[in-house]
Amino acid sequence: GAGVSQSPSNKVTEKGKDVELRCDPISGHTALYWYRQSLGQGLEFLIYFQGNSAPDKSGLPSDRFSAERTGGSVSTLTIQRTQQEDSAVYLCASSFSRVLNYEQYFGPGTRLTVT
Amino acid sequence: TQLLEQSPQFLSIQEGENLTVYCNSSSVFSSLQWYRQEPGEGPVLLVTVVTGGEVKKLKRLTFQFGDARKDSSLHITAAQPGDTGLYLCAGVRAGTASKLTFGTGTRLQVTL
Q: At a CB cut-off of 8 Å and minimum separation 6, what does B38 contact?
């Protein structure tokens, strides 16, 4: 079956511009996560959606970052007024939440470069 | 302070050597998972351990969950270049409905 997909795969933008990153989770998965990964580093949690509950936004680094999940499926991560330190790979993952011990399925990521 | 600390952070070894990666915490976890990430891809789940003391084997990889469910280890026997990647542990704290938390990661390089 189809896995988690993300678009675009690569994005180059100028400092100060806004960007939108898209994630299509696996159908039926109730939980969706966004992470940021700088070169060679571990995963930095950004935001977590679980069903109809209020999202856990505790990982968002600043108010320039926001995310929404429409209809419990597709999610968009928006970064406003991008800065060079926002350059990273942004990963999306989905899971059945409590079922199967929260096993997460990741997309290939979007590599964002801010020039 | 990271909830899950991994060690070592980096490891470079030659083909055929054995190695162990550790994932430690002061918290108790209901389950722990191990993922491997290769360059340009997202992490892929290798195994989930749920019972204290549990040992699972996946070919040359052996995973163990600590008796107190606060730590885990990954042992690779006779490492091969294909084992190269970033290894991540992840878990959910016991008694909570919290999200999955990832460890700090161990980057493994296996050379010929």
A: B44, B84, B85, B86
Q: Which residues contact A58 (CB under 8 A, 6 or more apart)?
A: A45
Cβ neighbours of A106 in B, within 8 Å: 42-44
Q: Which domain holds residue B91?
A: 5-111
**A93 contacts in B (CB within 8 Å)?**
42
* Contact between chains at B100 and A108 (C-beta distance less than 8 A): no
Please give the domain boundaries of chain A with CATH numbers for all domains: 5-107 (2.60.40.10)
Residue A96 pLDDT exceeds 90: no
B59-112 pLDDT tens trace: 999 999 999 999 999 999 999 999 999 999 998 888 776 678 889 999 999 999
Interface of A with B in 38-77 (CB under 8 A): 40-43, 45, 48, 50, 56
- Count of domains for chain B: 1
CATH number assigned to the domain comprising residue B40:
2.60.40.10
Q: pLDDT digits over B8-65, tens only?
A: 999 999 999 999 999 999 999 988 999 999 988 999 999 999 999 999 999 999 999 9
Coil/strand/helix, residue A99? helix
Taking CB atoms and an 8 Å cutoff, what residues of chain A touch B88?
42-43
Q: Could you say which DSSP state residue A64 is in?
A: T
Place of tokens 């749920």: B50
